[in-house]
Specification:
The protein is of the alpha/beta class. 26% of the residues lie in helices and 24% in strands. The model has no long low-confidence stretch (mean pLDDT 94).
Amino acid sequence: MCGAELKPLPEGVQSVMAVLAELGHPHEPVMLDDAARTAQQAADALGVALGQIAKSIVFKRKPDEAAVLVVTSGDRRVDEKKVQALVCAEGQKLGRADAEFVKAKTGFSIGGVSPVAHAEAPVTLIDEELFRFEVVWAAAGHPHGVFRLSPQDLGALTGAPVADVTLR
């Protein structure tokens, strides 16, 4: 046999790849040499601006235990109060999601949460700040996996509304 054997893609990346193909997205996930568990690591590995990383932040809506996914620009911080006002009914609160909750609800580990291909469909919001860029990069189901898209693609792939969700 010639050359090195290709390693199979991680299961999470395969799931994301399948959904992207099904939805006709033109860019397949790529695997980075090093893990990109943070937006800064991803930006450095890709040679792009920090804001071009579409980072996935998961919250837990109480008391119904729904996962709330906020896809935000890598150079911004999510304002929990803004998100809570958008996704919670009166009397409901938004809380932090731990690693176990994130894995159970999304199927992905923190650092690799994709905006698509979730185990359970989350309530999703897209940060309007992503629209400063023509091209952004999102996690593809694994800390080494990312895929290229436009902010408009993000809306089309997730069906999520665009909102003001960051601190000013």
